[in-house]
Structure formats: C-alpha cells, structure tokens
Amino acid sequence: MENILILNGSPRGKKGNTAKLVDNFITGLKEESSNLIIENIELYKKNINSCTGCFSCWNKTPGKCIFNDDMKDLISSYVNADLVIWATPLYHFGMTSIMKRFTERTLPINKPDIVKYDETYTHPQRYDMNNKKNILISTAGFPEAHNFEVLIDQLNKITGGKVSESILTVMGELLSVKALENRISWYLDAVQQAGKEFISQGSLNKKTKDLLKKELVPIDDFVEMANLTQKTEEKITTEKSQKGYNLLKLMGHSFVPNNANGIDAILEMEFTDLNESNHFIIKDNSCQLKKGPSNNFSAKIITGYEIWQKISQGDLDGPQAMMDGLYKIEGDFDLIQKLDRIFGSSKGKQDNKNQKINIDSRLVGQKAMGISFIPWVFSWIFIESNLLAGVLLPLLLSLGLVAIKKKKYELTYFEKMNTLYFSILSIISLFDYQLLSNIGIELNYFAVASIWGLSVLFNTALTSDYSKYDYEEDLEDNPIFIKTNDILTLFWALMFVGQGVAMIILKNYSYLKYSPLLYILILVAIKFTNYFSKKYPEYIAKGKLKKNIFSS
Questions:
Q1: Is the Cβ–Cβ distance between 9 and 155 less than 8 Å?
Q2: Nearest-CA neighbor of 359 among 418, 399, 416, 408?
Q3: Cβ count within 10 A of residue 261
Q4: Which residues lie closer than 8 Å to 455 by C-beta, 6 or more apart?
C-alpha cells in the first residue's frame, strides 16, 4: 500500500474534530511504514459543482463530466489510491453535503450498463478498483453509536461493500475541548494504534476495536456537559444565579484522578463580576464541587467569569493571563501550578517532546549544570600557570561531556558554547599563551558572562535549561517560568561580570590573596536564585507585578 487519499468532508477541514482522528491514524501508519504517498483533500476548499443528472458522462462524452472543475483531478486521485480514508462528521445521520456532492460526481467512473454482480444488479466500473481499500472515520455529537447506521450503509453502497474498517467516535465534540485533552488522550492513542495495525496487517485487533467503540467519557457526564453549554429558554432566565457554578461543573469534568495523587486541598474560585464564589474539595483522588466560599481554602483564584471561561476553553493561556494581571492567586501557589495536570491538558514532563531525556539521570537538572562548570573551574585555577590543565583539559572535558550527552540526553546551549569557547581558547594559546597567562582568569569570567547573557537573546535562558527538571509540570512554554529564568540568567551574567571586574581590581592592587573570597558571591547567588525562583512567580500570582483589573 503506497497511495493514500484522505477525503475530508468536514466544513472545518483540518481544524475539525474528524481531522484529529485522521491525524492520529496517519501518525500510526507512518510509524510502521515510510513508503507512503499521502494526499489530504479538504473537500470544502474544492470547486465541485452539483451533479445535474444529465448523463453526458455516459452517453455523449463517456467517462467525462460536462463540468470542468476540480472533480477531474479528484477522480484521478480517487481511482489511483490504494487506500481511501472517508473522513466526515455525522450530519443529520449521514455524510456532509460536500462529501455527498463528491460521491455523486463520481458517476463517470461507472458505465451505463446494468449487470449482475454477486447476486446484485449494478453498473460496471471503467477502472479496476477491486483491490482498493476504504476506511470510514467519523464523529457524532450524540453519545450512541447507532446514529452511524445510515452513514455506514451509505458508504458500503458507494464502495460496493468494501469498507475495510471504521472508526466511529461518539461524543466527537469533546475532541476539541482543550481541558479534556488529558482525560481522553487514551482514545487518540487507540486511533494511532489502529493506524499501526492497519498498515502492518490490513485490519485492527479486537482489543483496539473495542477501545474505539467506548465512549470518551461516561454518558451521564457527557449529557451534563453538553446541556451546560447549550442555551435553552429555561436556562436563559435562571443561569445568572449559578453561572460561575455551571462553568466550574464543566471544569470538574476534566478532573484526572491519577494526576491528583497525594493532593489534599481546597481550591476556591471567586468570580468578581458575578459576586459568586464556589470551591473544589480535592482529596483521595476525587474532586467535589461545593457552592459558596470555603472557610479554609488552600488556594484561591480571583478572576472574572469571561476570563476563566476563555482559559477553560483554551482560548486564553492561563499563565499569560496571570502575567497580564487578568486574575490573581491567594494561598498555595504550588497547587495552582498543578492545575493543568489535575484539570487540564498537561501530562507532566513524562511526555516531554524530547523522549531521549531521562529525568532521573545525573546529567540533567541542576546537577548537570554543576558538571558543566567543571571545565571552567579547572580553567579558572590553572589558566595563568599551566597550559595543559587550564586550557587543553577543559576542552577535553567539554568535548567528553558533549559526546556523552549527545547520545542519550538533552544537550544544552551552555555545553555547546563551552566547547566552542575552549576550542577558541586553545587556538589562542598556541599563538600567544603569554596573553592568557596575564588575563586568562578575567577573560573566563567575561566569557561565561557573555554566554549566559546571550542565551536570553538567542536561545532559552540557561537557568531554564536546567531548572525545568525541578518541576513535575512541563513549564518550558510557561511565560511566568520563562520570565523568571530570563531574570535569573541575566542576574548570573552580571554576577560573572562583577567577578571579572573584581579580579582586575585585585590584580591591580596586588590583593590576589583575597581572590578566593569571590566564590562567596557564588554562594550568595545560589541562595538568591532559590529564593527568587519561588517568590517571583508568587509575586506575579498575587497581582503585584503591575496595576491590573483588581487594583483599587
């Protein structure tokens, strides 16, 4: 199987829920085979006229339609495909109108004769498509699979009963709910597994089929979520009294018990524009929503209704909204940092994009940063007295660390720049080691300061490369984490500059015997780093960074 044609009949094309299923299925195909030619057609973007029933493609111009539109190329792709993936959301118990229009316009593929084939009368085809396979991928808004029956029968008629497999997803609208990504990720994993199985064996295993038939969430949960998001005449008159409560009920459905291990806390939500407070009790891997404020909350979020609604729907980034002063926090900030995993889409760092990283290794995190400084320590101590120990040995250590980490771990900007710097230093030493003997220590301080400072401009801040392993959550794209580490990295760069300036002063005034005192600055900097990395995000969370909507 080489040529794969995706016929996407959704009016939303690649942005639709059905496309999410297709993407995961194709990912599975690609994992098992690299020899695939995939054509993804968004039918709503194509110029496809409606069939007029003139039968010119049978009588006047056999095999050719009267319309000179995009169907000419689409029919060619359809005929030549080894596998056709029919992707359509369920519209009124059938395929979408644009896909129906496509199927009607495939009439030129058939000949006008009526023949008997497998005890059924039909039209013979102009092309040999006996080996073509078809897969139906569809989503429905209802929670029951029987709603697909008409669509299944229709596609079987169109393909001559050659639908190899079907992935029919009930509650399909939940696929676009960002807050539920973590809760329903198992289903998309099953779709991906289906792709792997189909490309390798031509069918799906029973276990995978059974998974794909399951509801994304319990039906009672789905019905409540669906009804909470729909406007009815009765709700319009009553919703104001519990508008915030209903929003939090939706949020509660995204709760992931396994991600709340060991958490015993009360999370209170205050909607300032509604004058309404409610709270979650999180305990023993369960979550209960209670009306009214709590007398003893662990953490409290103070926000406007629309702000939190946008955050819940994924239309507004929560950390960025906090940075912008759109909501603030009281109480336990550590609990707030875990909310994405407890209620949202984050799966924690075990799903980090770089699967090569072993977070338990000594070659990542703050320990790795300490190891990366070893070449610098040797250079600071020996550069002005010993070429081998002060220049060449640091280069070898840097190269060795890069070689080890490149195979299995994440290589940071600092380690790359270390190798470059000591390579340049080695070249300089070959021509003028006397220069390094005089200013080598200061040069090292200013060099490491430049590496750290420039990382903020051209790369991720160096402190974030290492400190991200201190958190269970994946914070690499979190604006608060980024801002905190930008400041810390620049602080360290300035600290190294200060050490370099201090060394120049000590040399000029012959006070080199006091140079070991410069290392006290490093101890102070470490203490400040630990303090700032905790207190600055809390400062932002309390809305004190700048005047915001909560300021009086």
A1: no
A2: 408
A3: 8
A4: 413, 414, 461, 462, 489
Measured CA distances, 437 to 375, 385, 393, 506 (Å):
17, 6, 16, 16
> Is this structure's pTM higher than 0.85?
no
Q: What is the DSSP string of 85-104?
A: EEEEE-BTTB--HHHHHHHH
Low-confidence ranges of the chain (pLDDT < 70): 1, 229-241, 344-365, 472-474, 544-552
* Residue carrying the six token digits 């109108």: 97
Q: Please give the C-alpha separations between residue 398 and each of 391, 401, 441, 466, 500, in angstroms, as whole numbers.
A: 11, 5, 18, 17, 22
Q: Are 85 and 25 in contact (CB under 8 A)?
A: yes
- Is residue 412 within 8 A of residue 364, CB to CB? The reply is no
| pLDDT value at residue 356 | 40
Of the candidates 105, 108, 147, 102, the residue with the CA atom closest to the CA atom of residue 9: 102
Model pLDDT, residue 289: 93
Neighbours of 365 (CB within 10 A): 17
Query: Tokens 């709503």 correspond to what residue?
Result: 44
87/373 Cα distance (integer angstroms): 54
Q: What is the pLDDT of residues 354-367, one digit of tens each?
A: 444 444 455 666 77
What distance in Å separates the CA atoms of residue 325 and residue 542, rounded to the nearest whole number?
9
* 3-class DSSP state of 538: helix
Is residue 105 within 8 A of residue 78, CB to CB? The reply is no
The residue among 411, 287, 388 whose CA lies nearest residue 341 is: 287
Residue 549: alpha-carbon gap to chain centroid: 30
Nearest residue to 70 (alpha-carbon basis) of 45, 51, 97: 45
What pLDDT was estimated at residue 362? 53
Half-sphere exposure for 304 (CA within 13 Å, toward CB) = 12
At 510, give phi and psi (nearest 5°): 55, 45
**pLDDT for the residue 353:** 40
pLDDT of residue 35: 87
238 within 8 A of 208, measured Cβ to Cβ: no
- pLDDT of 67 reads 94
Please give the structure tokens belonging to residue 305. Answer: 């209704």
